[in-house]
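note to self — DONT lose this again. spent like an hour looking for the file last time. sequence + predicted structure for the chain T wanted, 208 res
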Amino acid sequence: MTFELLIWMLAAYLIAGIPVGLVVGRARGIDLREVGSGNIGATNAVRAMGKAWGLLVFALDVAKAGLPVAAALHHFGPTPGGPSKVALVALAAILGHVFPIYLRFRGGKGVACAFGVFLVLAPKAALVSVLVYAQTLWLTRISAVGSLTAALVIVVVAWVDPSVPLPYVILAAALAGLIWERHRPNLQQMFEHARNAREREAKLDRNE
């Protein structure tokens, strides 16, 4: 790993680590860490500030990861080992959002930033994931389920698309794993709700 690549990774980390959700929330007199889920991402921003402001947070999260990656792709793309170098810059950007130094390494879940990264590196996979997210959200009314499904879809579409270099496929798999890990509290909560619902149904059946 060259010093130049390390500088690019550090820059991507610092840029993508800017907590735009927190900044937008404070401009509105709201600390996203103290409302709703406590997350600084777009979903909690929608709950706390409404759709328009939530969409703004989403767009800024997409841009702050996508722009450094687009610059890295332009710089490293034509060089030997370009895809691997760009993938490392992209990974640094995601880690900047998820573990930002500005917030003592307590950041968002990385969904919007991952979308921004793959909008640059594998546009078809990113756009398919958005459609899957929208459909899953419509069916389940649970944003976390849509995000988790979309993360897996990006991996699959990137894998089957011959135009996507292998380093980007590996990156997609790594980010999907990170996103699932970051959503573990949501998964535990959903399983708990499902178990409680089954117990209530069983109790009603016994009382009938």
